[in-house]
Amino acid sequence: MRNVGIIGIGYTPVFVSKRKDVSIVEMISEAVDAGLKNTGLAPEDIDAYVFGNMATFEGVNMPHLWATEHMHARGKPIMRFATGGTIGMAAFHGAYYHVASGMADIAMAVTYEKHSEGDAQVGLMGIITPELMAMLSAGIDVTGQSGMGAIGGGSAGGISFQASSYLHRSGAGIEHIDAIAAMERRNAAKNPYAHLKDPEATAEKIAQTPMVSWPIRFGHICPTTDGATVCILASEEKAAKIADKVAWVLGVANCASDATTANLIDSQITDPAEQLPAIMASKKACERAGIEDPKKEIDYVEIYNGFAHQTLMYLEKVGMCEVGEAHKLLEAGELEMNGRCPVNASGGVVSTNSIGTSALNRVTECALQIMGQAGEHQVEKEVHKAMAHGWGGLMQYCTITILGDKPKKL
Amino acid sequence: MEETKVVTGAWELSTFKFNIEGRGLQLMLKHMKDRKLMGIKCHQCGTVYLPGPFYCRKCHIRIDEPAEVSDHGQVMTFTIGYADVRGNPLDEPRIAPIVKLDGCDSWIMGVMQGCAPEDVHVGMRVKVHWAEETTGSLQDMQYFVPE
Amino acid sequence: MEKKVAIAGFRIAAAPDLETTRERLVFDLSKGLLDDLGITRDAVDNFVFCSNDFMDGRTISHVFIGPAAGGYMKDQTKVEMDGLNAMIYASMGIISGQYDVTMVVALSLTGSQASPYLYTDYSLDPTYDRQLKLLNELSAAALEARSYLTAGGYPEELLDVVAAQDLKNAAANPGQARRIDGVSRERIKGSPYYYEPLRELHCYPPTDGGCAMLLVSEKKAKELTDKPVWLLGMGRSTDIYYLGDRDLSTSLSAAQAAERAYAMAGIKDPASELDLAEIMSLFAHQEPLLAEAMGLLEKGKAAAAYEAGDTAVEGRMPINPSGGPLGAHPICATGLIRAAEAARQLRGEAGENQVKKAGVALAHGQDGVCAQQSAVVILGT
User: Fold this and answer.
1) Taking CB atoms and an 8 Å limit, are B81 and A153 in contact across chains?
2) CATH code for the part of the protein at B20-146
């Protein structure tokens, strides 16, 4: 195993609902060129590309093929990953193993989503297409009075089961979900690459948004965003030559259980709020990073929270606090940018969700905090080690990346 | 801002046909006519699934031992739907619990009636309300009601 | 490259219609493979899947096949390309020292459950090529075939010669989906044109299928198998998307991928050092085209080599002794199957199609229209 570090990041100039001024491939090239500019690298310096997005959301299969020249990747290897919400981090892990194995010295992870050109709800419904087809053919009403209609809520429908289970098991209330959502929208206001920004957001304001599927309110849900992100990784030797500041990869892991939202074709055995994969992935990543107690050793966390309750839930699952403690940390102000356990200073996924990028942005935001380059949303405490989290699939799959300001001792 | 031109495209799902795992579901449907819920048990670890899959997720072995499951159970989690998939408001809120039936390890989703939205809670005991006339279809199990 | 990664075993399934579900196919392949090796899922620490959401008609399609492969509560990821890339990615995890035993599973049920050509249709530039409705996988391949035949000065009959050799080998391989007894050049020439010069029997058949492969570290190889097949080199490359910007008479991606794999394996003269090649040629012309690009056949001399029997099982440079993708093309699995078939040869288990002295083999996989992307691995005993 050799050391790998993040030497540069590239974002599209904005993350917004509709990028009407660029095509998909032009938007990708904006982020790629930003990444090259930020590191001072030329396209020839990139040995390998790793690509990720959810192709079914825009209806473009294998978009890396179309985007090859827009990434300056002619003559280069490109590897494409697709794992749902975690895709950004799956691509990051892909780039990491390219460099860790010595197959590349410098690798670029490229991710994007252009939601305005597709239909994420249809894409999400597509997860259960065979089951829906089977139920339809059996004469079962999938959107009406049958319980299956709950799946008809797209991701929000399935997630609400997770949220209510979490509330019951943690002792938190909806008011805590309102409060964490408000905190993140306020944080987003300080991040130039965030989508939904509200410097004046309060729990009371979020509480006034309509209930979509109890206990999920409109204000707890992520937007659909257009945007692209790249992340450039290098071997220790190359990084020393290229970059002044490096965020080192200390450990990566992922874990998948059983698909969670029950349906009638394939019975499921997992509580959507149990999240064993998050617990396991965090444990494995910490082990690989040489971290014994994340509570003490991790200074900053980015949680993939398409829905606001997930910030609290996953903080507990990844080991940043005890079960039932996250909402108390929130009440005490410890999760804020000046708190003892700052989380999602970027505004999180609940403020910006171009799905392909979302799990990668968790990593890049941790890297910015470690490099001290987060600007207005730099947290108050010094960040030496940070943890990025991603979830995807049917709430059964989690990925973790741990970064540090010093390379691992080999 | 100079705007781009829009061209349209569709993803035609209708061109697919899917084989689905039917055995466990068929077993369940067959017994529903008698108002019984029949799942499949893993002979190695004892996990009971309803409807039964062809293999045990935990043991990674084929399974086929029928196991009857109670039509009473416990609400493990629930939601109350206010909008459909497009965000359009529903006429009235819809309670959708996920229930762990007694004697079963997998969870089953359904709708709940005979209970006000504010009264439903995790841990609540419920039972299946069967159709007046059962036909061996999923509709036989109409909804859950409080025990 | 040092011997760091070995193929411990594999299972292949292919048929026009396997009459199965994706979950059951994955279960049967992976469970069967674990049984072959006398181990359970407990011994596997990483899973790399390879399928395509469009082909599966399902978003995040690996969600349901993870547990079926034995991946419950394990590390998992999905490479959405040809399966040879999944094998390469799995190898990276082992070379880096993170994993010891990785299960790679690639599959699609495109033969019976979806149109295989959708895969390419939805991969086209949606703003231009898809709107024009002129370009598809077959028409693009026909353009490529014409460019290749013209540039090499080859007669159209070369396609019949190549297809006849492949289909003869496929008929003798029980693992193939399209097996035609007594197939002849005349029969091939008599099959209808799809897009001139490509006829039905010059093109891959719609196929259901998959492949599971267990990759292991050097340490585990000793425990698990008496016949390890070692990964000696790997390389990949990508050409530009637009056909008009490419030289369709050859393959930049295959040439570069092979060059990188040879460099890693220390191969100077592939035509003499390699004992066989399994090439992902989806259409008859692609086999000599890719073989030339990868330095296995001399440029412009492919027709003579085929006529002389050089590329046959008993020839000097056997190409696709398994029958190749003209016998079966389960999208996403085909390149991985090439590696598995090469491993079968290296283990001396290829039966009727066994190449005599099989010590070093090449496997090739591709993605995109006219092999926009290629992956190459070099395997040895």
Assistant:
1) yes
2) 2.40.50.840
